[in-house]
Amino acid sequence: MTSGSADMPEVLRRLRELLLQTINDRNVKVYLFGSYARGTNKNSSDIDIGIWHPSSPGPEFFTHLRDLLEESTIPYRVDLVDLVHADPALMDKIQKEGILWND
Question: Which residue in 13, 54, 92, 99 has its CB near the most CB atoms, within 10 A?
Answer without folding.
Answer: 99
